Amino acid sequence: MHPQDNSFFRKVSIWLPLLLAGVLALGMFIGLRYQAASAASQGSVELAKLQRNLGGQGKVEELLRYIDAKYVEEADKDAITRKAIDAVIKELDPHSNYISSEDLIAINEQLEGNFDGIGVEFMILDDTIVVVTPLAGGPSEAVGIQAGDKIVTIEDSIVAGVELATQDIFSLLRGEKGTEVNVGIKRAGQKELLSFNITRDKIPVHSVDVAIMLDEKTGFIKVNRFSATTYDEFVQSLEKLVEKNEMVDLVIDLRHNPGGYLTQATNMLSQLFPEKGKLLVYTEGRTVKRTEYTTNGRPFYNIGKVVVLIDEGSASASEIMAGAVQDHDRGVLVGRRSFGKGLVQEQYPLRDGSALRLTVARYYTPSGRCIQKDYEHESAAAYDRDMEDRFMNGELSEKGNIEIADTTKFFTDNGYVVYGGGGITPDVFVPLDTFILREDYLRWRQYTAGFVFRFVEQEAGLADRYQLNDFVSSYQVPNNVFQEYVQYAREQGEESAIPTNNRVLKELNRFLKARIARQLYGNEGFFAVWNKDDDMVLEALKVLKTDDPLAAARKE
């Protein structure tokens, strides 16, 4: 659908700011969760040295001492200090952050492994809890919670417009596996609150969602973030695909991947290049010397053709990986222009248990381009509005509408022209499927997880009747089962009319089948079904079937 469609345009123009908030917040949140690879120990030493040099005599400290000692009324020193810190950070780039001691504890808890909860990452924006992303395979994703949703109520408590600490929100949302929590969601384009009953479950912290075969020779690995275990998970996935399934070519899915550890990305890249010492990325800043990351020359497997899937939610380490593949002509990038985060943060612990994540350098792809989108000459609102602007100018629908932020030409190893500034442009463009924004589809989709759980319990022999491949190729959701699904939605309080649009019905059936497959076979089942009609995956397979994928992808 073209963005000039007025009714759709109005709906999307409301929804997209939340999407951007989700994408941006996710990049920030993951940045909080994962320390920059080169930062931790060295940063502590450098900060301690800096504090000794200052001698505690900074103007801010002096000002606060006067207020504490002489002000006519007793002042909340902690509140004033936090506001001062926020004001300072606001003058820097969008990705430098102050982390309170309470928030740091909560963030570190999530690095310990599994925890029981509803499975969302969130950010507090303007005293409102905004869902950054529902974790893949988690209970919130299952009921239809989406990035950009605002949590207004938790059980009987109103949480919007109330100053709650991150730990307080964790306390409300987390709970023992099997217990339920009701959340009221405000979704863009919806006048009424949406009510979701979410059954808490064990939330695994994995960065590789799935590793499966797309056909007899092509593997597919979906990476949702670059955490401390991503490289190990990636290698284990390669082992499974190559040794058990004789994989030749590989599709790496980095869509909606906000980044994380830089070294995890470079270690993964080393598995794609047989050469030792090949430049993958370098970082450099005002006080940080140039640091180069190169291949180790020790790939475990001989991987053939490569396709990397990216979109507007692919940021930071995802862009490092995509940039290296593109600059060295190692594979084809398929999708839409990436987020555009080319800044490197280091994390410094402060004396009270809080921490500062400070941007200290930029990273550059092998050809020398920095893909950070502009923030120095734009307001914070404009930076936050970038995703909305992309839709407004038609970029998400047509490749020809992509705006090149920096016209400086850079060249891949084979002489192909690429550009920096504002993300990485893929070799093959795949437009956004605007169907995902339909109100009736989103409304009815939320009931699939609960229904499927009950349905599979009743159909105990379903897994025995189908192997996964047979299920994908031949199983269709029976009409009577879909009617049972409609009845289930009615029992949950759904009062809207049953959708009559053929595409809505088709996609609801597709999602039901994918959810049934997940219930029976895990994530492999879900993606085996879902990838069959995934536009980007189909385009990747089309490119890989050509004799020269790069030439086919880059032809005028």
How would you describe this protein?
Strands 3, 4, 5, 6, 7 and 8 form a six-stranded antiparallel sheet that branches. Strands 10-11-12-15-16-21 form a six-stranded mixed sheet, sandwiched between helices. Helices cover 40% and strands 19% of the residues. A hairpin with a 7-residue loop joins strand 7 and strand 8. It is globular, with a radius of gyration of 24 Å. Residues 1-44 have low confidence and may be disordered. With 556 residues, the protein is α+β, with helices and mostly antiparallel strands.
Q: Largest sheet at a glance?
A: 6 strands, antiparallel
Find the structural class using helix and strand composition.
Answer: alpha+beta
Radius of gyration: 24 Å
Low-confidence segments? 1-44
How many strands in all? 21
Distance between the termini: 24 Å
Which bin fits the share of residues in helices? 40-55%
